[in-house]
Design a protein that fits this description.
Number of strands: 8
Radius of gyration: 21 Å
Strand content: 5-15%
Distance between the termini: 54 Å
Oligomer: single chain
Strand order of the largest sheet: 1-3-2
Length: 237
Amino acid sequence: MSEPRTNDDDQLARHQLGSRDRGRLADDTRRAIIALVRGPYLSAARQPELWRALLRDRAAIELHLGNMFLEMVVDLERQLAFVHNAELEVETPRVVRQLRLGLLDTALLLDLRQRLLHDVDVSGRVFVDRAELEEALAAYRPQASTNLAGFARAVTAAIEKMRKAAVVLLTSQPERFEISPVLAVAFDADELAAVARDLAELRDRGDDGLDLSAEPDEADENDDTDETDETDEELQG
C-alpha cells in the first residue's frame, strides 16, 4: 500500500525542473534568490520578471535567505531589493562580501548619495558627469603631493569600483552615469552621519590615507585586507 501524498510532495512535483531536482520553489523564484545573493541588488527596472517573482513569493524567499544567514531589504517605492548579512545574537558566517572602501571611495559614495537625494530630474532619475565627480573628489587630493597623475588614477579607480558595484550605471554617453536608487536605502542616516564625520576628520588633519603610487588594479587586489584607512560597508561588491 502506497503512502499518502503530502503537501511537500505536491510542491516538489509542481516546481520540479527534472527528475533529479529537489527544489520546492518556482524557477523564477530561485533565479530571484540567486540574483539577490550575487548582488548587488535586484530591481524592477532591470529585472522585471525576477521582481514579480520576489513580490509573489516574498515569504518563501525570506525563509530561504534566513536559512543562509541573510536578511532581505525590500523598497517597494523604489522597486528594488538587496540582501545583507544577518545580525544575530550568535556569531554567524559572513555570506556576502562587504565592499571595502578607502578614503576616496567613501567620499565618492557620500557625494553620490547626496546627489541622489537632491538632484532628481522630472523622470525621477539622477545622472552625473565624470567631470562632476572628479571635481567633488579634488578636495581630497593630498595638499603636499604633486603626483597629479597618481591622484587621477585613484579617482578613476574609485569611480570604477562604484560602477562594478552597480552604484553608478553606464549610460549611452561614455562620460555620464546614472546613480543607482539603491544608495537611498542601503545606508541609514546615522550610518552616513558617522561616516561623514570620520571622513571630515581625516581630511581636516591631512590624514588622506592615499597611496598615489599604487595602480588601480593593485588597490583592487587588496580589497580583502585589513587596513586602518578603510571601512567596511554593507554593499556587495
